[in-house]
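Encode chain A's predicted structure.
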Amino acid sequence: MKVLLSKATLAMHEKEAKSQNVSIDEIVKRETLFSETQKSVEFKDEKIEGDKATLKVKNSYGSWETVPFVREDGSWKIDKAGYAEQMIKDIELQQNQVFDTPQSVDPLGTPSETPELQLDTPTTTPTGTPE
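Encoded structure for chain A:
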């Protein structure tokens, strides 16, 4: 199975194996999409963009899963590391969109920060009566 993995994916698995004090073979076996007895793979929806590609494959549980690939030295390799990096970037982008200051557009079409809502609360005098 290791022969099918990209260099970056192997490096990622090596780090994981070292941190868990197990062999890289154990990590690869644990992370595989297919069972050891599986002889064929059902696939669909091949998409190629330069040296990157995705393919939907039916995993050992019967579910469709998108598998990322990268072309290395003329061969297509499974790119779990690239997939993990993209997921992290997507999550960071979503978090930035959620936590960034909302913007509104004025009639001229220029973005501006949304003004904070200020509530008028009565102030009290030293005697405790509202002004």
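The mean pLDDT is 76.
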